Amino acid sequence: MTDKKESAPVLVIGAGVAGIEASLLLANSGRKVYLIEKTSYIGGNVIKFEEVFPNMDCATCMIAPKQQELLANENIELLTLSQVEAVSGAAGDFSVKIKQKARYIDLVNCIGCNACFDPCPVEVDNEFEEGLNKRKAVYIPCAGALPNVPAIDTENCVRFKGQECQACQEACAFEAIDFNQQDKELELKVGAIVVATGFNMFDIGKTSQYGYKKLGGVYSAMEIERICASNGPTQGEITLRSGEAPKSVAIINCVGREEKGYCSAVCCMAALKLCHFLKNKLPDLKITQFYSDLCIPGKAYQHFYQEVKDSGVDFIRAEVTGVSESGKELAVKYKTDQGKGNTLTADMVILNPALEPGADSAKLAGMLNIPQSREGFFSEKEPDLTPVATAQDGIFIAGCAQGPKDIAETIAEAEATAGRILSRSG
Amino acid sequence: MAKRLGVYVCECGTNIADKVDVDKVLAVVKTLKDVVVADRYKLLCSGDGQEYLKQSIIENGLTHVVVAACSPKQHETTFMNVCERAGLNPYLFQLVNIREQCAWVTPDGEAATDKAIRQIRAAISRVQYHTALEKKGMECNTDVLVIGGGIAGIKASQVLAAPDRKVYLVEKTASLGGKTRRFSKLFINMESGPALIAGEIERLQQNKNIEVLTESEAEQILGFLGNFEAKVVSKTEDKEAKEQNLNVGAVVLATGFDLFDAKGLPQYGYGTLDNVFTSLDFEEMNLADGPTQGKILLKNGQPPKSAAIIHCVGRAEKGYCSKVCCLYSFKFDRMLQSQLPGAKIAHFYSDLCIPGKANQKFYEDSRESGVEFVRSTVTEIAGGDKGLTVKYETESGDKGDLAVDMVILLPAMEPSSDARKFAQMLNIPQDDKGFLAEEHQLLSPVASAVEGVFVIGCARGPQSIAESIVQAEAAAGKILSALVPGRELELEVKTSQILESFCTGCKTCIEVCPYGAITFDEDRQISVVNEVLCHGCGNCAAACPSGAARLKHFTFPQIYQELEEVLR
After folding, report:
1. Helices A17-28, A407-422: inter-axial angle, 10-degree rounding
2. What pLDDT does residue A1 have?
């Protein structure tokens, strides 16, 4: 191996927990790291969770020190609003073309005071909050997002649609808003690449039997995560769309499992976490879980399940065949293993969907020339022996980009990519 | 030297100045003893602001600086760096957060101003008790000791070893490869375990930077990140014990697992009934160099016509799901089917745990090949003239039984007995199941609570081979990132210290230290802080009943002075 390869910068794609951890280890060893992230913020999906299983740690508090360390690390160049456009070269000597969208807010001058939000005349659904509330065209996704600097969404900003508006600029006391910023094309020379592009949730809209988006009381698990979040649309108050607190909840697991053809590994625990959280906030809430097989692998998870079960949550092993309106409530029709049909009524239904690869995986796999599995996740070189390496020398994968997994496994994989990249044993 | 204090209030544009009456703040501050500068600035963190601050510190010959601005998370480092550039020790500085803690949260302007004044007075009072602290570095050893020669230990050694980094791989048995070497096939690709291990051992042998010590055990490990000394005892060819001391910078524990002893559950008949096997017995039976030369045979030498696979043996007793048993049970289906076409196989299980992208198909293939899955609890395995009977009860309470020739039990995995030994030797905690505990279950899964000691593979919980390898590479990543040849380790500045004259030797501090940074000096009968390991958490300082443990930069005078002014 050449000296050049051993000291070449590394490109990390995706600034979720995996990308952050890999970047920190590489940078602390002395490597230059380019961390690119397609959104305007870092922290990925994890910062959407108020608490994480099994210890109910506050997720944002848990990763904030890592985020701060990342932002302060001089070896890490964070490029938000950026995506890979093209990749050429080989291990030790990749050329990567990056397109970085303009933020229109100066990262140095902006102090994150949020004074620009109020005067903005535009209101659109906030995708970070699963559309449960609105945001402005100049926005940060949620309170506490880092970097604490807004971005202008040019698709919705009236100025970028040709109207005369500079309301945000006028409100900024720091001359941080610059409409003249341009999208940039960058060419990075790197020796290795870490792909940490994470996951999406299975699109529940593809199912019809659960009444998602049709029945007011039906929610996706991610919507509930945001409703539980103290920095979310309801400031953590658990309410139905009517504004009332739910009295009974049915959680339906494995939504999309059959369509995807695999178990998503974390959903059972995520559902148990929601039970724990909801019971804490609303002790009289009646919760019923519909499930087929309980997947709670590893040393610490069964204890958590037992605790939730003992708190009074009902578990029904059954297939849910449909959710419909029943007066003011929802009727959950189900069929047990023995083929017995039954109905349960609840005023809130939570659908717990499968995890699937990030939306741009196929495009990225093509550019990087690395194979995807049947399920669309990036493939390991050899599933047993080289779990974070890919078929391309110098390109590594970590976290849910490789397959559904929990935070601990994701972090371990991120650290493993650093191990492989920093290794000089060939 | 006379004290010369500078106090700077940042307006943060309008963020602070709109709520806090900065003129009033400065008027009060200017009257305080030893304050030689009190000034305001529009945006002190800006380039111009930092330059102004630097010049002002130099021109006024300041000995201590207080900045009232935003959260220390945002700009403490910024202003400490300015102090350093101005030639002032950065620890003779105190930041007051009058933005998040006053301007942004206190609705009333007068109240916010009053609060800001109190906090700034407190900082002025505190900063005078600060002492200059210096950053320290330490030369470190970058070699690594890996304990356990299974797949995790082997892979960690391979990734770590380099011309400037020697790895000692210590294995207590005579051969490397651990449990993997005894698995004739591995899920889900049905590769050969012995072949995989043979390939890895060959790679180890080619690597001159790895020294393999078989029939060897670490008897004592002392030290800390960058500087451990391990006493390793090896059996020599003439069965003598040879002792050597190894100096390393990090230790990786890969001590693996054992199976739950199925004899503890007599209802399954293990050890009393013929033809009841554990999964490891069955693996042995399938090895070409095993007791049956790789043939699946009953005690009478005949091949079985039917087999029952019992899941979750000992799960209730252990209190956790062992994660990999369901997956290797489908591997057993294939092993049985390929040797014994037409053999009837039935699984008795409660919940299938097959997480991950590729595993469901592995299960479905088993199911579609005719293997039966009975969701039930097995209440008893009974023996008889014609073979074994599996008695079970389904979830709905139906009882049934099935006659089979062979029963394979899938016992839970538990930590190997070495886990306790090394937990005690290295002072790292075990969880309630006996596995070696992580520094943080989610965020730091392969580090232990003792810096420089890492825990990988089944020593920290049930894992698949792929997961064990991920963790091996992860530990390597952490070590390669922290211990770089030729680079000094940067040590925490705000460490704890224990004053000899105050220490009564009660050892309370040792109990509360989460980093194993405090040891007891038997000669002097006092506790001693190892500054290399201390993270400055302050537990010892809070717990010490005699006031001997003190945290630099958070001393009692500093804290009391601050509190007194806030409460004045």
Report:
1. 30
2. 41
- Show the tokens assigned to B216: 């060897």
Low-confidence ranges of chain A (pLDDT < 50): 1-2
Judge if A111 and A85 occupy the same domain: no
Contact A403 B356 (CB under 8 A): yes
Strands (DSSP E) found in A215-298: 218-220, 248-255, 286-291
A329-336 and A151-152 beta bridge pairing: unpaired
How many structural domains is chain A composed of?
Answer: 3
A99/B364 Cα distance (integer angstroms): 43
Within 8 A of A298 by CB-CB distance, chain B residues are 320-321, 323, 461-462
Each residue's pLDDT tens digit, B504-548:
999 999 999 988 889 999 999 999 998 888 889 999 999 999 999
pLDDT tens sequence across A374-393? 999 999 999 889 999 999 99
What is the CB neighbour count within 10 angstroms for residue B492?
Answer: 18
Give B358's contacts in chain A (Cβ within 8 Å): 262, 373-375, 383, 403
Cβ of A411 and B444 within 8 Å? yes
Q: State the Cα–Cα distance between residues B541 and B494, nearest whole angstrom.
A: 12
**Complex ipTM:** 0.96
Question: What is the distance, to the nearest Å, from the Cα of residue B141 to the centroid of all Cα atoms in its chain?
Answer: 21
Q: How far is residue B2 from each of residues B8, B83, B92, measured CA to CA in Å?
A: 20, 19, 14
CB spacing of B360 vs A113 below 8 angstroms: no
**Residues A343, A367 within the same domain:** no
* Domain finish residue from A354, A372, A407: A354
Q: Is the peptide bond before A238 cis (omega within 30 degrees of 0)?
A: no
Contacts of B352 in chain A (CB under 8 A): 293, 295
Q: At what angle do helices A17-28 and B465-482 cross, to 10 degrees?
A: 40
We report the CATH number of the domain holding residue A133 as 3.30.70
As a residue count, chain A comes to 426
Q: Is the domain of A383 the same as that of A332? A: no
Helix (H, G, I), strand (E, B) or coil at A119: coil
Closest by Cα among B169, B145, B151, B203 to B467: B151
- The tens digit of pLDDT for each residue in B429-448 reads 999 999 999 999 999 999 99
Q: How many CB atoms lie within 10 A of CB A313?
A: 22
DSSP designation for B280: H
Task: Show the domains of chain B with their CATH numbers.
Answer: 5-133 (3.40.50), 144-256+416-482 (3.50.50.60), 267-399 (3.50.50), 492-552 (3.30.70.20)
Give the lowest-confidence range in A378-392, B230-244, B309-323, B500-514.
Answer: B230-244
Beta strands at A248-255 and A348-353: parallel, antiparallel or unpaired: parallel
Asked if A425 and B207 come within 8 Å (Cβ–Cβ), the reply is yes
Q: How far apart are CA A334 and CA A318, in angstroms?
A: 6
For residue A144, the enclosing domain spans 103-179
Q: Is the pLDDT of residue B74 over 90?
A: no
Q: Which among B315, B360, B446 has the least Cβ separation from residue A412?
A: B446
Contact A316, A218 (CB under 8 A): no
Residue B440: phi and psi, rounded to 5, are -140, 125
Q: Is the pLDDT of residue B427 over 90?
A: no
Number of H helices, E strands in chain A: 10, 23
Determine which of B357, B413, B431 to mutate to test the interface with A (most A C-beta atoms within 10 Å). B357
* CB spacing of A29 vs B481 below 8 angstroms: yes
The verdict on A337 and A224 lying in the same domain is yes
Pairwise CB contact (< 8 Å): A262 & B359: yes
DSSP one-letter code for B100: I
Q: Pick from B163, B209, B478: which is nearest to A415 by CB? A: B478
CB-CB contact of A74 with A118 (8 Å): no
Cβ-based neighbour number of residue A201 at 10 Å: 20
**Contact call for residues B279 and B311 (beta carbons, < 8 A):** no
